[in-house]
Design a protein that fits this description.
- The protein has 684 residues and is α/β, with parallel strands linked by helices.
- It has 3 domains: 184 residues, no CATH class; 161 residues, Beta-Lactamase, CATH 3.30.450.380; 271 residues, P-loop containing nucleotide triphosphate hydrolases (Rossmann fold), CATH 3.40.50.
- It is built from 22 helices and 22 strands.
- The chain starts with 26 loop residues before the first strand and ends with a helix.
- The protein binds adenosine-5'-diphosphate and magnesium ion (MG).
């Protein structure tokens, strides 16, 4: 669970704290820290389970509450409102007691009392010279620590709010100060702990936080300097044990109430209605804010993805992996790369059920008889899952690779520096002239994305058939049949091999294969030798490995057939300056079979220098020479054709036009009316 809470149990476990909170007031005690008591109503109706305060602090708390009740307005400052704005000094904010003194301000807690210090801080002696001096004074307060505690006064204190809630009007100077502070600490930041309780775990420091679903879910990025380890700490609304009980009841009863047809309609609204209905039946009056928290959790499990829902919503997350029971879920984060989370599945039944549900949502089934599944979730995310301990010894696992909502285009590839514009101009000419291209590389090196981007260069009206295990490709061409394999649910499975056989009967000019790995590869090479064009990807780290896999079991492509390939792109997931990057390491041409040695002849055309991260063209291209002959071009014409394409691509990068639709339109237009495009991009 994201939020650390005092273990549930009888009230006796709490150190007999009794706190009165004045009506409508909020009090925050942070100490081991903890607690946020909201609205009185809640406090009265529910036992104070979630208060975990030690006595000393409780006393302090009491004192604050008393002072607050007696003299709430003591600190009033009389002033004009700046530019029609109202502002107020919020007093509850002024002081927070925390263990590590972050800004180093220590406050006397014994003797004088926190409230008094606070008062002094906000309303200094009359001779104080302006706000700056006041602030300086606040910062300068020197004090002794209470027994065993450290405390600090936090200065972000005075906060601008639009409607003056408590009617405190502040002078211009203060307002300016407020504005400045508001910039430093925007509204959103202050709200982080409104619905949640967050305690930074021992040994970690907070580096950043950001919202996922305001105001319920946010993430703290933590760092442990000792272990040199980052953590993605998910924080969700805190529930009191009684709220948890209610939630469980709701869970149980909702299951009966939500009928099948209803599930199809506006699920959000239905859920909210049913919850309200049920609460009425329970005769429970829970305040609106708390109902919202319950609904948050119910939506999370009925409509969302349960405990990992937030990871799917976080746009900075690329991959989610659960490596087994009792292990933290790991993420691949765009900024922090591989990072562990505070979410762990500890209960084997819960984990198995969850994996089962995930797979079901992807329209497939998983069982001990067939313990692994590859599937696509409704949003297009790729799911790989295993169940039980049959194949994965640490228990059920799952990996979700979040599919890009926007497919990659050549412009993205240049922007990410995966290819240079020269390389793509070359591939553009090659694809337009129907050369066979294969992208090889390791897992997640971006093969499919590259394939998708290069596919945009295919002649716009050619008949295309694509075959995949899971739907990943998204092309812009209209004359395109997209086929996906189907596992055998009792019936007969439809494999890549079957699909390819089907595809060939549809007389396609171009066949795109998501990934070749089995016997379909042989058919693909046969298709190439009979004049079809193919684009595909394959898992292999090098050209040698590719050949080895193609020629070996179970694929068995005859050696001479390999020469049907024209271009191999070798893609890498590597590091440059400590950052994980995806790069096309090599582009090479297949030059046929050496008559004497029988070896496959290759021509390395582009190569990336791993030190400088620059691409270099190594020599002349055989593919281009062939195209030149085929089309009856002069060498100069060929050069211009390449140059023009490079310029168009660079223009798109410069203008930041990278959407599949716009990019495809320009490529298509270039195919039919190159001069117009050159004019449009201002290059002729
Ligand atoms: N050129 C690239 N630059 C940055 N990220 C990329 C690039 N290509 C792919 N990605 C990201 O890498 C992940 C895996 O890409 P994918 O093409 O599915 O890999 P593969 O097919 O090699 O397994 C995706 O999340 C995608 O968004
Ligand atoms: Mg792939």
């Amino acid at each position: 669970m994201a939020v650390k809470r005092k273990p549930t149990g009888p009230v006796v476990g709490i150190k007999g704290v009794e706190i009165k909170i004045p009506k409508g007031k909020k009090v925050q005690v942070r100490r081991r820290k903890i607690v946020k008591a909201k609205k009185t109503a809640l406090l009265e109706s529910l036992p104070f389970w979630n208060l975990w305060v030690d006595t000393e602090l409780a006393e302090l708390q009491k004192k604050i509450a008393e002072v607050e009740a007696e003299a709430p307005m003591k600190r009033e400052v009389k002033v004009k409102i700046p530019k029609g704005e109202k502002a107020r000094v919020r007093r509850e904010k002024v002081v927070k007691v925390e263990k590590p003194a972050v800004e180093g301000l220590e406050v006397p807690i014994k003797g004088e009392g926190l409230a008094a210090v606070e008062r002094k801080a906000v309303k200094p002696p009359a001779k104080a010279g302006g706000i700056a001096a006041r602030i300086a004074r606040i910062r300068g307060i020197k004090v002794e620590k209470p027994e065993g505690e450290e405390a600090r006064v936090r200065r972000e204190k005075v906060v601008a709010e639009k409607p003056a809630v408590e009617g405190l009007e502040v002078d211009t100077e203060l307002a300016q100060l407020q504005q400045k502070m508001a910039v430093e600490k925007p509204e959103a930041l202050r709200r982080f702990e409104e619905q949640t309780t967050f305690m930074c775990p021992e040994g970690y420091q907070e580096q950043a936080r950001y919202w996922i679903t305001e105001p319920y879910t946010w993430v703290a990025i933590l760092f442990n300097p000792e272990k040199n380890e980052r953590m993605y700490y998910l924080v969700e609304p805190s529930l009191t044990p009684s709220e948890k009980n209610i939630l469980e009841m709701l869970h149980e009863h909702l299951l009966d109430r939500l009928t099948y047809e209803e599930a199809a309609k506006d699920r959000d609204a239905i859920l909210v209605n049913k919850v309200k209905e049920l609460l009425k039946e329970y005769e429970m009056s829970i305040d609106e804010e708390n109902v919202k928290k319950l609904i948050y959790y119910l939506k999370r499990s009925y409509i969302g993805y349960g405990r990992i829902d937030a990871f799917l919503k976080d746009h900075k997350i690329e991959d989610i992996s659960c490596d087994g029971l009792g292990l933290p879920i790991f993420l691949y984060h765009q900024e922090y790369q591989n990072i562990r989370t505070n979410v762990v599945y500890d209960d084997p039944i819960e984990l198995d059920l969850f994996v089962g549900r995930l797979v079901e949502r992807a329209g497939k089934q998983i069982s001990l008889g067939k313990p692994t599944v590859d599937a696509t979730l409704p949003q297009g995310y790729r799911l790989q899952a295993t169940i039980g301990k049959e194949v994965t010894t640490k228990g059920s696992t799952f990996t979700i690779r979040k599919y890009r909502e926007r497919p990659f285009t050549p412009v993205d590839l240049i922007k990410y520096r995966t290819f240079s514009s020269d390389m793509l101009a070359f591939l553009w000419l090659a694809a337009e002239n129907k050369r066979n291209i294969i992208i090889v590389g390791g897992t997640a090196s971006g093969k499919t994305c590259t394939l998708n981007a290069i596919a945009l260069f295919m002649p716009p009206d050619a008949k295309i058939v694509s075959i995949e295990d899971t739907r990943e490709l998204s092309l812009y061409q209209e004359n395109w049949v997209a086929a996906v394999t189907r596992p055998a649910y009792g019936g007969k499975a439809i494999t890549m091999y079957d699909l390819l056989a089907q595809a060939l009967r549809q007389r396609p000019e171009i066949i795109v294969v998501g990934e070749v790995r089995g016997p379909e590869a042989l058919s693909l090479f046969q298709a190439m030798t009979t004049g079809h064009t193919s684009y595909s990807t394959m898992h292999a780290g090098s050209i040698q490995e590719m050949i080895y896999r193609l020629e070996g079991e179970p694929i068995n492509v005859p050696h001479h057939m390999l020469a049907a390939l024209d271009i191999v792109c070798i893609q890498l997931l590597t590091h440059f300056k400590e950052v994980r990057v995806r790069r096309n390491q090599t582009v090479l041409e297949i030059a046929g079979i050496d008559q004497e040695t029988g070896a496959l002849k290759t021509n390395r055309l582009f190569e990336r220098d791993p030190v400088t991260d620059q691409f270099e063209m190594l020599g002349d291209s055989m593919v281009l020479t062939e195209i030149m002959r085929e089309r009856g071009w002069s060498a100069l014409r060929l050069k211009t054709e390449l140059e023009n394409r490079r310029k168009v691509l660079e223009y798109l990068v410069e203008k930041d036009i990278s959407g599949i639709e716009e990019v495809s339109k320009i490529i298509r237009r270039y195919y039919f009316e190159p001069e117009k495009v050159m004019k449009q991009v201002g290059l002729k």
